[in-house]
Amino acid sequence: MGHLDHAAFGWLTPVLSFVMACIGAALGLRCTVRALAATGRSRRNWLITAASAIGTGIWTMHFVAMLGFSVSGTEIRYNVPLTILSLIVAMIVVGAGVFAVGYSRDRGRALVLGGLTTGLGVASMHYLGMAALRLHGDVNYDPLLVGLSVAIAVVAATAALWAALNIKSPIAVAVASLVMGGAVSSMHYTGMMAVSVQVAPSSAALPGATVMQFIFPLAVGLGSYLFLTSAFVALSPTAGEREASASAQRPVESLAR
User: Fold this and answer.
1) Distance between CA atoms of 192 and 7, rounded to whole angstroms?
2) Least confident of 20-34, 71-85, 132-146, 168-182
3) Distance (Å, rounded) from C-alpha 54 to C-alpha 60?
4) Residue whose C-alpha is closest to residue 214's, from 138, 129, 139
């Protein structure tokens, strides 16, 4: 049995992964709030941005946390296609949940459906990412802890979508994002506690890419996307601000006539 270390770099990776989860949640919630106040193509675009933000934030959180994961007695590699698939699945399934909330007239049913779909998307991303692991040995899971991690993901996603539907102020969204980030991080580490590895020492080369060859550059790129998109959303006027600007211009136009 190999010894598993979930924080090989100390508190750096857990804290940084939590921050990435919070940024993704905050951006996704703000975009969903903007979407609910918009119509037509604008609503669709805001929902797409929300889905990409939440999916990217969750994926980045997972793999930043995995930077600190090590197993004694074996190296670790990652299957590149499966790793990319985990990101795509996160965005698509989270997108389905966000669109269900954004377009449904029955908010209660949409919240349940969206929370379930988004939560399962988060869990699918996590376990697809784990399936991408390549090491000398066999990876096994505790079914009870796996079930608990999926339940946490569903509850966290439902709570986040409820916040998007009911919370409008930036401060409240920030608090909700911290809660969401904590819940998603808890889901990740609950899922990791379910893992055990039976190491089979070998000198054979492992297939796949190392963390620094693939995971780290991709995580940095996606993290940069989150920061840049956050700046764009922060600088974009809200529906209320646009309406106030239009109202202020009407008297000026009347006088000009």
Assistant:
1) 11
2) 168-182
3) 10
4) 129
Q: Which two tokens mark 255?
A: 């006088």
Q: Are strands 137-141 and 76-78 parallel, antiparallel or unpaired?
A: unpaired
Q: Which among 195, 224, 60, 48 has a CA at the least distance from the CA of 135? A: 195
Question: Structure pTM?
Answer: 0.81
Which structural domain range is residue 222 located in? Answer: 4-256
Give bridge partners of residue 70 from the DSSP assignment: 5
Query: Rounded to the nearest 10 degrees, how much is the dihedral formed by the CA atoms of 128, 132, 136, 138?
Result: 20
Q: Which region holds residue 40: left if phi is over 0, alpha if psi is between -120 and 50, else beta?
A: left
Q: How many residues does the chain have?
A: 257
Number of compact structural domains in the chain = 1
Is the Cβ–Cβ distance between 136 and 206 less than 8 Å?
yes
d(CA 36, CA 145) in angstroms, rounded, equals 36
- What whole-number distance in Å separates Cα of residue 58 and Cα of residue 91? 9
> In this structure, is the dihedral angle defined by the CA atoms of residues 37, 38, 42 and 48, taken in order, positive or negative?
positive
* pLDDT for res 177: 83
Rounded Cα–Cα distance for residues 133 and 141 (Å): 14
For residue 79, give the DSSP letter: -
Q: Which of 98, 146, 102, 143 is nearest to 124 (CA)?
A: 146
Reduce the DSSP state of residue 6 to 3 states and report it: coil
Query: CA gyration radius for the chain?
Result: 21
User: Where does residue 223 rank: exposed (0-12), middle (13-18), buried (19+ CB within 10 A)?
Assistant: buried
C-beta of residue 89 within 8 angstroms of C-beta of residue 79: no
Q: Mean pLDDT throughout 17-21? A: 89
